[in-house]
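Lecture notes, unit on protein representations.

Consider one protein chain, 232 amino acids long.
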Amino acid sequence: MVAVRFIEVEWDRRVATSHPELVIVAARFVDVHAEVNFEVVERLEASAFQEIRSKYTLEGLKNDPAVRAYRDFYWRLSIDPTKQRPAAEALIRRVLSGRKPWRINTFVNSYNLASALTGVTLGAYDLDRVKGEIRIRFASPGEPFQGIGMHEPKPLTGKEIVVTDDEGVIAIYPYRDAERTKVTGSSRTVLLIAYGVPKLPKEKLEEAVKLTDEIVKKASAGRLESYFTSRP
């Protein structure tokens, strides 16, 4: 086991046995400035939204290879993706419906834009708030999880795959991040995870990380220091 400052990931044996084909690309962003200033982000969104709307339709979105890969994975976990949509699909649907992504801060909105452009689900975590080691495992039935924007923790079913540190769940793989480790204006070092699922090439995850770096730099929200691939 390795301390979290090295950003290595431990996969639980049960996940490795049930889903040996999973893979993530984890990236470390430094000099992060997550400001509540969206002037630059909105300029970047203008051209990106045109690309998204030319690439997808609401009717045909479910047939996109990346979207289909995430949906199929949800069904394997007995989670209905039409009720709990994978994060990238939810972002794309929001853009196609004529709505802007949720306004959070420059770093979060930058990686959300990369997620919508690539169809890859991304999550980000303030490394100063992550405690101990990072593990990927199945949730315990009834285990509490407080997602971003939730007023209080809710119990998990035990079907979910979760990303955890020594204090509990920091994300539901590949769906929702926790309130405790979210990126805020005080965040300076961030762990970004591109969540892989079966039939989604690792190269697609790397593309999403690199695109995030491009957008984050343009928004003056930080820079990519390093990234690596992790498998069960």
